[in-house]
């Protein structure tokens, strides 16, 4: 167990790191962050913050020398940076990053464990793309194998003719058949070092332009009926990775069952509702897991929950939300620039307590 006053290092400087650090502070820890220079909003909750490149081995060593355990809030931390840190300090283990950073790897990993993915093939040229379209059909989505998040690095292709207008981006991609889903959901779980797993309820997730916009509970009958199958796969993934901390798997709920989309080896936007809505939040349980503390309950505390992201300039007037009925819980991330499509905060509304 990590003693009170110990230091947790967080790789990445975004809102997830900020909320992780807030939970760590509550449990008596101190956090130090590390990310390349930028609008690192996690720094507000850290006692110190290294703004250095991922390739700066000296800075990484200096960072590690001040930490008792190191985790991440961002799944695209280069593996070379993680490899430069003392491996026994890391939680989760970097294998989870290795799998999740590569869309082909993660799909293969999940398929081997019995999960179902959308039809997909690797694409490395314009010719490959045409062949992939012939094989899988349209509509489909071209996605970069690496570095994609929030709908970035993705191109929708409605027809073969459409593909002529899409230039191969010069990096390995996959072409994936469009899934006819009814709704989307994620399984968010926490796993402790001794193998104990706890799972939060799955919200119904709505995306806008590839980015999560809205999560609600109850999630509806379809998700309820597919949740257990998805949970089984998520637990198998966590066990196979000997995972410690919070792990997220995203699924499409289709008429034919859950289809795995992608995983995030970290806390997740679709779990922000757990701060007010669950017995223990995803952020607190991640800290508990990596610190070797007992895990907290994951039960939902309210009959209904609604979490909405605050994006771009909406944030400039977001304090108005506080005057609304029903005591909305507003979280603003303190980002300096309210750019279009940038996640600036979120608001969670809860109904009456569950009886
Ligand atoms: P991703 O970055 O892969 O999570 O994609 C972001 C969002 O784009 C997903 O949550 C879906 O809303 C949509 N999307 C991605 N892949 C597919 C697909 N194969 N079929 C239908 N929608 C998709």
């Amino acid at each position: 167990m990590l003693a009170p006053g110990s230091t947790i290092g967080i790789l990445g400087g975004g809102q997830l790191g900020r909320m992780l650090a807030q939970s760590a502070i509550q449990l008596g820890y101190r956090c130090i962050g590390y990310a390349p220079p930028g609008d690192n909003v996690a720094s507000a909750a850290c006692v110190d913050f290294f703004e250095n490149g991922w390739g700066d081995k000296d800075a990484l060593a200096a960072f590690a020398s001040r930490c008792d355990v190191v985790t991440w809030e961002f799944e695209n931390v280069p593996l070379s940076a993680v490899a430069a840190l003392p491996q026994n300090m890391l939680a989760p283990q970097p294998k989870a990053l290795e799998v999740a950073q590569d869309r082909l790897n993660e799909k293969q990993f999940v398929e081997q464990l019995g999960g179902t993915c959308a039809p997909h093939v690797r694409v490395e040229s314009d010719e490959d793309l045409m062949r992939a379209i012939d094989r899988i059909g349209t509509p489909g989505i071209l996605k970069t194998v690496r570095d994609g998040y929030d709908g970035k690095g993705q191109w929708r292709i409605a027809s073969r003719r459409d593909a002529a207008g899409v230039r191969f981006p010069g990096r390995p991609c996959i072409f994936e058949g469009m899934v006819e889903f009814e709704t989307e959901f994620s399984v968010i779980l926490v796993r402790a070092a001794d193998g104990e797993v706890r799972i939060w309820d799955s919200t119904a997730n709505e995306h806008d332009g590839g980015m999560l916009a809205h999560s609600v509970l109850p999630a509806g009958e379809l998700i309820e009926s597919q949740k257990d199958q998805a949970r089984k796969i998520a637990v198998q993934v966590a066990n196979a990775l000997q995972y410690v901390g919070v792990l997220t798997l995203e699924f499409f709920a289709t008429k034919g069952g859950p289809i795995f989309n992608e995983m995030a080896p970290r806390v997740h936007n679709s779990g922000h509702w757990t701060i007010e809505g669950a017995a223990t939040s995803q952020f607190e349980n991640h800290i508990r897991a990596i610190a070797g503390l007992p895990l907290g309950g994951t039960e939902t505390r309210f009959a209904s929950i609604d979490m909405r992201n605050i994006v771009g300039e909406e944030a400039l007037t977001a304090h108005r939300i506080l005057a609304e009925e029903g005591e909305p819980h507003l979280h603003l991330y303190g980002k300096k620039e309210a750019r279009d499509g940038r996640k600036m905060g979120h608001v969670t509304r809860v109904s009456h307590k569950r009886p």
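The chain has three domains: 7-90, 119-177, 183-351. The pocket of adenosine monophosphate is lined by residues 118, 141, 148, 151, 176, 178-179, 184, 207, 210, 250, 261-262 (CB under 6 Å).
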